[in-house]
Amino acid sequence: MADTTTIRSYTKGIDQTPRKVALVASLVRRRTVADALVILSHTPKRAALPVIKAIESAKSNAVNTHGLDAKTLTISTLSVTAGTRLKRFKPASRGRALPFQKKSANILVEVTGETKAKKKPVTAKVEEPAKVEEK
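^ that's the sequence the OP posted. Answer follows.
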């Protein structure tokens, strides 16, 4: 049995409200990575693209850096939290300025999978050249 490992990936500063991103993220929680990417690629929401990028980042970290098998990867945690808020003002009538905030979101993805089974090195039999008898 292979060892299971959890890999994290953070995506910070997404220029969308956390509420809208969390709505898309709830579609793919606790699914396999392959299923999640298919579902999100067919989701007609703008927030689907940052979630796809975050999941693909976690997948590539797991496969390339930690040597996990891509077929066994599942999303164990997918959380969306509030990021920094930019305070801005919008001009209004009679010289007023109305405040508003530009909200951003952070995405945390944890992927769990099994390590790849290490292949045993194949020992090639080296044939020695036939000896030529001298007469």
